[in-house]
Amino acid sequence: MDARFTAEQDEIRRTLRELLHKRCGAEELRAAVDTPAGHDPALWTTLAEQLGLPGLALPEAYGGVGCSVTELALACEETGRALAPSPLLATTVLAAPLLLALGTEEQRSNLLPRLASGALTATLAVPGACLATALGLIGDNRGDWAGGGRAGGVQAKRSEDGAWRLYGQVDQVLDGHSAGLLVVAAHTGGFSRSRTLLYLVRAGADGLVRMRQTSLDATRPQARLQLRDVDAELLGREDADVLSAVARVGDTAAAVLAAEAVGGADRVLERTVEYVKQREQFGRAIGSFQAVKHRLADLYVQVQAARSAAYYAAWATAASDERVGPLALAQALEALRATASEGVQLHGGIGFTWEHEAHLYFKRAAGDELLFGPVHRLRAYAAEEARLFGGGEVAV
């Protein structure tokens, strides 16, 4: 493994950081989350047209750039630094890989170029608070997490003319209120042939009701979807191994989310160091106190360790059979939570005010743990998969 970044990878990071510094400052961020879409459409257009961000990890045959997950992770590290609200996670990290893995050639040709160009946004809708389980991050996704019978969720039935119809409700859908395409996980087959399949639902479909929800992290807008006998299109074939495909996407998503969390943690630490150099107490900067130095040094080590884990996880998604994304995500989320908490404390009275940005990073850490964690469950399931505590022999 060559740990050095290429000139192209460094350029992606530099260009994106400069753009977000100009277009996604504190005022722009607050204005964007208050819009109906929950993000700045003009910024999304710029990210798509000038940087090709939505298609960064998609094949060139479908209008993408053809880069690897590593480049996508580096890009998301920069969006994480700025807490930039955008459809990038829902569209590029969750929905597009499923279309690529499971879609028919016609579906890929029709949808992926539009996703890569940024003209179309998409998201993954998983019933209940089951997104982390469906992605295989905190449990076996072979279970009936899509619902079924009295379990609720979303039901799929085929009508006499062969068309698929969906009914049910999905909460906590990332960008669900604004996405132009919904990839909905639904239960079908009844008791005898019970299985989970993915379906495509277009925005504006009859019977589809979308309501934006108030979320803890305003930079990650969420929605509730109600599907009232909605016309849907099956993604791929009925005999496709949907659960394995979703789990593979989960490992990639975990690596990208880890890099994003590292970017946020690094920015919080950077701002906190700047502040303690300026804030004076008893006639000297509080950053000169040994106790403060020790706390910041511990945070620096934690952030750097999380960064190494995130980079390795991104590399391993394509170059190794190891599934290390969930562990890297656990370490990164813990680093973000620790740096955000210390940042609030070391900023003193201004740190917990609404006007300061410190609370936004703390809410990002807490919100991501609610959606994709928590940390202890990420680690516990990774240990279970590796059989670390199974009572077997341990190599010395």
Structure in words:
This protein is an alpha+beta fold and about 400 residues long. Helix content is about 50%, strand content about 15%. The protein has twelve helices and nine strands. It has helices at about 5-25, 25-35, 40-50, 70-80, 90-100, 105-115, 130-135, 240-280, 290-320, 325-345, 360-370, 375-385, and strands spanning about 120-125, 155-160, 165-175, 180-190, 195-200, 210-215, 220-235, 280, 285. The strands form two sheets. Strands 1, 2, 3, 4, 5, 6 and 7 form a seven-stranded mixed sheet that branches. Helix 8 (about 240-280) packs antiparallel against helix 9 (about 290-320) and helix 8 runs parallel beside helix 10. The longest helix is centred in the middle third of the chain and has 37 residues, at about 240-280. The radius of gyration is 21 Å and the shape is globular. The model has no long low-confidence stretch (mean pLDDT about 90).
Q: What key attributes describe this structure?
A:
9 strands; 12 helices; seven-stranded mixed sheet; two-stranded antiparallel ribbon; 15% strand; alpha+beta; 396 residues; globular
